[in-house]
Specification:
By secondary structure, this protein is mainly alpha-helical. It contains twelve helices and two strands; from the N terminus they run H-H-H-E-H-H-H-H-E-H-H-H-H-H. It has two domains: 10-195, no CATH class; 197-273, no CATH class. Helix content is 73%, strand content 3%. A two-stranded parallel sheet has the order 1-2. The two termini are 13 Å apart. Belongs to the TatC family.
């Protein structure tokens, strides 16, 4: 059991949690303010980048499909027959503010992790507290990898599919600004958090809520869910679906290995007592 030099009451924990949220919010606002000064680049090159037919992801997928012999792949003839419009009086102001806050959250994620670690560290063993730097570095790396995966893979494939899809020639796609940006922000942040799966499994295994046997048993169901998800968010071709599904399943397999290592260490420690 972890030992503390000072026992904290429930109210003390609430106070620590409150300050965690305050400091994290301040960090997000500071970084969001910094993002405001480069907002033109963020909007034109990042947010609206996937709307450009020459976006790097479309070129990459075109080369991949051609490599596998699909010379006339649909992804090689990207068209974006839609416009983005603002229909709310204060829509663009809200768009600017929340975009900057989102950038602040992504950029400040390592600091938020550090605050979370300080909050949970009193409940850890002394030897576990030494892993603070490794926790911050690995968790941040996984998060940023997930954000990049969401932005360069999930987002452009979604924009391409929904932007080019037409149920009838009489229907013109005119997407609301909030709808378009919400999809991008949700895809990137959700993927960033999804890539934290190995870290989550580590702590769940430490708490005894998950075992490697459980994860292996439900591997086939996880694969089915991932394939269904890939089919929904990618264009209707097998290559794109496989490219999306592979990293997620790799994370799942890594999580199984991590869970197994944790269980072995727990068994070893229990036998030495």
């Amino acid at each position: 059991m972890a030992t503390n030099t000072k026992e904290m009451s429930f109210l003390d924990h609430l106070e620590e949690l409150r300050w965690l949220l305050v400091r994290s919010t301040i960090a997000i606002l500071i970084l969001g303010t910094a993002a405001f000064f480069v907002s033109d680049f963020i909007f034109e090159k990042i947010l609206f980048g996937p709307k450009n037919p020459n976006f790097v992801t479309y070129r990459f997928f075109c080369e991949v499909t051609q490599f596998f012999g699909f010379e006339n792949a649909q992804i090689c003839n990207v068209e974006m027959p839609f416009i983005i419009q603002n229909t709310n009086m204060g829509g663009q102001v809200s768009f600017l503010i929340w975009t900057c806050i989102t950038v602040g959250f992504i950029a400040g994620f390592p600091f938020i992790l550090w605050e979370i670690w300080k909050f949970i560290s009193p409940a850890l063993y002394e030897k576990e507290k030494k892993y603070a730097k490794a926790f911050i570095v690995v968790s941040s790396l996984l998060f940023f990898m997930g954000v990049l995966f969401g932005y360069y893979i999930i987002t452009p494939l979604s924009v391409y599919f929904f932007g080019s899809f037409s149920a009838s020639a009489e229907i013109v796609n005119e997407f609301n600004l909030e709808s378009y940006t919400s999809m991008i922000k949700t895809s990137t942040i959700a993927c960033g958090l999804l890539f934290e799966l190995p870290i989550l499994i580590y702590f769940l295994t430490k708490l005894g809520l998950v075992t490697p046997t459980f994860l292996r048993k439900y591997r086939k169901y996880a694969l089915i869910i991932v394939l269904i998800l890939s089919a929904v968010i990618t264009p209707p071709d097998v290559i794109s679906q496989v490219i999306v599904a592979i990293p997620i399943m790799v994370l799942y397999e890594i999580s199984i290995l991590i869970s197994a290592v944790v269980v072995r260490k727990e068994i070893k420690q229990s036998t030495l007592k």
